[in-house]
Each structure stands twice: as structure tokens, then as C-alpha cells.
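Suppose a classmate hands you a notebook page containing two proteins, each written out with its sequence and a corresponding row of C-alpha cells. How would you begin to make sense of it? This section walks through that situation. The first entry is reproduced here exactly as it would appear on such a page.
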Amino acid sequence: MGDARWGESRAGDSWSERGAGTALMTGIALLALILVAVAGVFVLAASAASKAATAADLAALAAADSARGLAPGQPCEIAGTVAAQHGARVEQCLVEDPATGTVLIRVTVDGPGLLPRAAGAARAGAPP
């Protein structure tokens, strides 16, 4: 009669730890979900930064061709068109050296969701 029944616990008895494994596994599962969410945010940020860098590179190359007379049009207008085709906006367009056609382009891309804008910059011109 002095024995504990199933489901009852006594001080110092192993029954007092029932459910501890469930609580531990729930905590580990929540931690894993948080880590996956944080990793997903980093992947989205890296993707936006890559998109901005690519848009800046291509816009700078197109603007440099125009500045050197290899393509028709104004360098900054062409840079804006190329950047827009890649989902970016030109923030700065500077023809650094009209003689060699060196152009500096800075673009931004809207980050997905609540992430801030990603920025990219590129310089292009005649080979040395």
C-alpha cells in the first residue's frame, strides 16, 4: 500500500521527471527552427547582394561602351536601362574619365520582405 500508483510521484522518485524528455525535445526542435529561419534570412540577403553586384557590373560595362563610343546613347541613361532590366536602380553614375570611358556605377536592389536594400558598385572602362 505504500507504493506509488502509476502517474503519482514521490519526492526523490524517478516519476517526478516524467515529461522532461518531451520538454527537452520541444526546446531542441524550436532551436532548430530558429536556426533554419536565420539561415534563410542570410540566404535571401546574399541573393539580393549578388543581384545588386551583377546589375552594377552589367550597367557599368554598358555605360563604358557608350562612353567610349562603341554603343549609341548617353552612358548614364544606358546604365539606368540595363540596371532596371535586372531589377536595380542606379543611385550614382559618374563618367570618371571621358577620354578612356571609365564609368563608376552604384545601384541598389530592394531586399525581399523586410530586408533593407542591397547595394552594388562597379567601375568599367577601357583596358589599360
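The notebook's second entry, a different protein, reads as follows.
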Amino acid sequence: MALAVNNEVVLENIFTINRICYNVCLGETHLEWFETNEGIFENGDLHHSKKSVPIEQILCIREECKGSERNCFSGLHSRSYLLSGYHSLSQTVVPCLSAEIWYMHKKKADRWRLKRLVITSPHDTIVSKWLHFGQEILRKHVIKRPKRLLIFINPISGSKSGVRKFRKCVEPVFRMANIETVVVRTKHKNHCRDILKNQNLSLYDGICLVGGDGLYSEAIHGLLPDSSLPISIIPCGSTNAVACSICGPKVDAISAALQVVRGCQISLDVSNIYAEDRLIAHHTCMLSVGYFGDLLARAEPWRRILGKRRYDAAGFRTLLSMRSTRVRITYKKIPDVVDSVCHENCLRCSREDDNSSLEERRIERNVAVFSIFTISCRCPMSTTGGSPYSHLGDGCAVILIVNECSRFQFLRFLIALAKDSTNALKLPYVESFRTTDVKVEVLAASMDTPNWNCDGEVVRERSLHVKMERKAINVFANGVEKVEKSNKKCCSLCTSRADDDF
């Protein structure tokens, strides 16, 4: 029979699944099952439609007892093989007729779900063997899976759903995967940062953050510069830019929790922000002055009244009173490269580039927006993100400048940013380039000190110096999955028109 490549079989039995007879094989790398037509061979081959699950995607194999199932197996012939040199089980077994296997299944891009497979046999010893050897294989091969997590929950993040989502979506997944958790509910600003600075982090295999970008920023400030402990972000915030940028724009709480169970990790860049040679903050998403800085300053007083809608109201008001800001920018420009979107197994992020001898440049102009992006900042409102060509771990920041323009032109930029930000970069008054080191000085503004939007926090400084630190933090993720664009036509009219072009 055809099994997955290099999948050395440990156990093989005939079970019933949903009252249909299946041949189920447990190997070193995969679990496979296929219909056997009640075990009858025809022409030396088995009738089957094979399904397969990698071992690392299995959460648990455990007992599932249902007495009413016993009558379904009268007269069923069962055969069993014990392979691969595993020690035989003791003659004393726990009576059991069914075992349930919980595994993760990709529903669509960025979305993972749990599925349950119940295998049933009329022989107690067979199921007991599967429980024993299945758990042994999980312990042996799922070595990337964390054993103990420190979890922070922001109860007022976004729509205040953090506690509910954790109890309903995240906690059952961790319990099923046998991951021990220590839960802390944050009570005030920077609570997470203060705990991480004083906590003995050697007791944990990772940190799980149930909240938004603000909680992630607190954790970064608590961990850097010493700890390499990986972080997981369960999206429960207003924009969830970090979670959407590393897992995909449609990621949800269950999918993010299952990424932790998989144990895959990637490294992210972090920008260090200095004011007068003094480190004042780290930023991991966006640092912006102009429209987005003024928008955030207006939105914050409306947090408790409007919730997520505060950004819509503040954005409209800021657009009506939009003003330009004169800035002086000193930067080291990286030579132009072919634009590419960061995906899982990204080649650019894995490549080591020497950017130490770059030429320094300087510009001075009036701008509507000046932004520095460390990641793409995808979110449900902009699925491609504010900077679609930003990479997670290449050590470079992307500078986005919207030069002084009319309100109509700026509205056109915002619409393009929401639909497809690659089109926004093609506008004549928008420019973008990559750098590793940039100094920005605000020369004139209507306010005494300009408003900077630093990962959703307002920073008021006249001059800032930003330096990139490559792969400074580890996260539980595998990168954004690359999805091929479909050529499927929406109707017969479109198909006929397409055919006429050939």
C-alpha cells in the first residue's frame, strides 16, 4: 500500500469510522486511513480514498468510550500489525472500544480548525495499543510544541472579547494539547511589560498574548534586549496588525492558538527609536507623523465611548482639518530591488545582506504622511497592508512618504490603501524606499510638538532616530501562506470575453 514518504508504520489495524470499515495506519510521521470495502481485496489492491495527517498536526489521542457502539461490530474480522520495534504492551489493558484523535485541519488560507476522528474496534486490546503507542509517538516527535506558557489577557482590548475568546477558543486547544498555562489578566497600562521584566522566564517555553498590537508592544518592551522567548499573538484587538502580518489577514483566535501547538517559529525585525541619543521605545509595526499621528491623538479620548469606531470618526475629522508637516529626513537608502511580498519560507528574510556601507542621503519637504514600516501592517481594513513589500526578517524598514496634496488626492490614497496598497504606491505624489537607519526632524507644525503614531501609542518628540535590529524577536508562526490568484471567471459572459481575446 502507498504511504507517505518515509512514514515507517508502527501500528496498522482495521477500524470503523462513521460505521464504515477503514484501514488505519499510524506511522512515524503521518496518520493515514482509507476505506477498505470491509477488508475485501480485489485484484490484489485495496479500494481506498486515502486521507493523511502529519503527526505534528495531531493534538492528542485519547480514550472515547461509548457503550452503544459495541453492537455495531458483531462478526467484524479484525487484523492487527505491530511494527517498527516498539515494545509490546503489557497484557493488562484498560477496557476500551473507541479512541478519538483530535487534529488540526486547514479550512482555507490563514484559517485552521480542529477535527475529530473516532476509531472503533470490537477488541479492547487493539484500541488500548493505539492509545499507548499513539501517545508515545506524540511525545517522541512533537518536540517543537511548548510545554508551559505564560499567558497575558487584556480584558479591554478591542471589543473587550479577550477573556471570552480565551475561555472558548484558546484554553480548550492548549488543554487538549497538554500545554500547561499560567494566566495573567492585565489590570493597567504596561502591566505585561512590568511582569516580564521581573519574572523568571526560564520556567516557560513561550508567551501567549490575548489582545491587540498594544499588548504585543508591551511584551516587546518587557523582553528586549535579553530574552529569546517566543511570542504568540491571539488577535483580539482593534486592528491586529501584527497577527495579520505574520499569520495572514484572516487569522482568528483558534488559528493563532493552533500555530502555537504546531510549534513553528519565525523571527521578526524590531526598530529601536532614539531621541537625543536616548532609547525611548521599540516599534514593530508603524511609526508615523502627519495624518496618522494626528488621527491617533484625536481617537484616544474616544476609546471608551466609540471603541473600534473611534478610528473612523477621528479619521474623518482629521481629513477635514488636514495639514502638511515639513520634515528633514536623513537616511541610508538601500539599492532598489525587485518588489516581493513576504510569505512563508521567504528567501529574502533568510538571505544575509551587507548594508554597512550605504550612502547617506538627505531630503527636506512638506508631507501629508511620513511613515516607517517594520512589517506590512495587514489588517481586515487593508488586507495587503500599509506597506505590502515589507518583510518580516530582512533587517530593513520601508519608508512611505505622501507628499503635500489636496484632500481629494489624499482621500484617493486612503481608498487605494484599503483596497490594494500596491496601487497606492503607484500614485504620483506617493514614494517608498527601503532603509536600515533614518533620522527624522519635524521642522514646522501647527502644534508645539508633533504627534507620532508609534504602534498605536502617541509619542510627542521633535526629532527621532530609528535603527533597525534584525530578527530581534521570535514568534509562534509560519509566515503568511502564499495563495495563488484564481483565474476562475465569475460568469459565462466573462468566460466568453476571455475566450475572444485568444
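A careful reader of the second entry would note: The radius of gyration is 27 Å.
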